Structure to design on (443 residues):
């Protein structure tokens, strides 16, 4: 079916005629003779378009438009006006109606007009569903982990989310700072407004000011038209400034003005522009050291760090690795048309022993690579990068002879790119012996 349409009219003959006409076009039709019964249908069915008469037994169709708009914002309303009463249609448009039709005079407009209204409604329903999906993806319940370190960070973020307070997220690259920023936004009263993420290190210093605050025509060579900046795009919502430690000192003063006065200047514009934006900043740098080195403004640091949240590195929350790895497997398996049911003990042990310099982002990449390479339902060490398979060879490594032998066999196999005949020659053992040891050590 092409969509659900509700006709509200107390004239039975006209209502049924319109209903039959639109049903022939493939729409699912609903009918109501008054506002009361119409509202019940709207609450029960996912109506996309409403056609409503102006004069109804229990109210006015023009006044009904803003009610529908408020309670069912994705629904589009077309008003049916009486001949010679165009004023009702004009007022309906002002109230938020999609358009109006004059009864008996606009019959050839009904089908194309309904089709356009339906297209707009479908788009609005898709946007609504996407917003729900995004909100679900970034809420606090979807931040994975049960270690005390991550639970403490989540608890702090939950408490600060409903306020408009500026938040500074501290943590290593790949530790999940943007995920936390999204979750804080979704937990705030600004969740229906834009969330704009800006990576300050990824934008050239010479254009960062223009990108943040916008510019007017002629502000500099190449500024051929006015441009909105990220702060203007995020009006009413949240702006996430990632890698704040990379921002040039001269631009930091202009950001400080935004935080203190809620206003900014476009490049080339002498008049200040008021804004209403919540700022969440993040950095992997030690800002106090940057201040001492003259690379970061002390006053901006104190303004940003009113509420700090430190996110633990993956090395400090290794208890969460099995949960995170399982979640990534569940994400990648369907995309690769594979039935992955888990990880071997050796695979998981290798993950636990690894030093995660890239944090969760690195773990994600490792699991994705392993999922691509594996030919079985279980991820095993053979699908891990070579440095994982080598294991550690320092004083903290296992000193059992079997572990050392296994590690050496893996190293040799890596050097010969899996050529078992060549590996057996280098190890000075028979090929059958090598196969037996590969099976014994689960390589």
């Amino acid at each position: 079916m092409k969509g659900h349409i509700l006709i509200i009219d107390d004239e039975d003959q006209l209502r049924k005629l319109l209903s039959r006409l639109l049903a022939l076009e493939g729409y699912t039709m609903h009918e109501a003779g008054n506002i009361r019964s119409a509202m019940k249908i709207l609450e029960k069915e996912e109506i996309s378009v409403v056609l409503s008469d102006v004069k109804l037994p229990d109210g006015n169709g023009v006044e009904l438009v803003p009610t529908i708009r408020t309670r069912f914002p994705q629904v589009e309303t077309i008003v049916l006006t009486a001949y010679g009463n165009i004023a009702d249609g004009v007022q309906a448009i002002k109230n938020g109606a999609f358009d109006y039709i004059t009864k008996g005079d606009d019959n050839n407009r009904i089908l194309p007009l309904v089709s356009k209204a339906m297209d707009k409604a479908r788009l609005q329903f898709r946007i609504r569903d996407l917003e729900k999906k995004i909100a679900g993806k970034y809420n606090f319940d979807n931040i994975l982990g049960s270690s005390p370190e991550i639970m403490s960070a989540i608890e702090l973020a939950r408490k600060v989310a409903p306020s408009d307070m500026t938040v500074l997220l501290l943590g290593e690259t790949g530790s999940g700072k943007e995920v936390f920023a999204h979750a804080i936004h979704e937990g705030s009263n600004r969740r229906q407004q834009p969330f704009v993420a800006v990576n300050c290190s990824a934008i050239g210093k010479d254009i960062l000011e223009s990108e943040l605050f916008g510019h007017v025509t002629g502000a500099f060579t190449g500024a051929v038209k006015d441009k909105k900046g990220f702060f203007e795009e995020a009006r009413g919502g949240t702006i996430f400034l990632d890698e704040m430690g990379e921002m040039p000192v001269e631009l930091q003063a202009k950001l400080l003005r935004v935080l203190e006065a809620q206003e900014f200047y476009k490049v080339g514009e002498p008049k200040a522009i008021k804004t209403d934006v919540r700022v969440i900043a993040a950095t992997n740098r030690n800002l106090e050291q940057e201040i001492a080195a003259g690379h970061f403004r002390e006053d901006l640091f104190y303004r940003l760090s009113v509420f700090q949240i430190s996110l633990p590195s993956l090395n400090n929350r290794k208890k969460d690795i099995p949960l995170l790895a399982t979640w990534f497997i569940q994400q990648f398996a369907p995309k690769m048309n594979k039935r992955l049911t888990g990880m071997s003990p050796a695979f998981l042990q290798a993950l636990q022993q690894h030093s995660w310099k890239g944090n969760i982002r690195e773990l994600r990449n490792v699991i994705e690579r392993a999922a691509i390479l594996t030919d079985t339902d279980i991820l095993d060490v053979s699908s891990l990068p070579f440095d994982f398979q080598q294991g550690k060879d320092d004083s903290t490594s296992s000193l059992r002879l079997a572990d050392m032998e296994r590690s050496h066999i893996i190293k040799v196999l890596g050097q010969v790119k899996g050529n078992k005949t060549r590996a057996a020659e280098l190890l000075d053992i028979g090929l059958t012996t090598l196969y037996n040891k590969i099976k014994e050590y689960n390589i």
Observations:
- The CA atoms of residues 202 and 243 lie 9 Å apart.
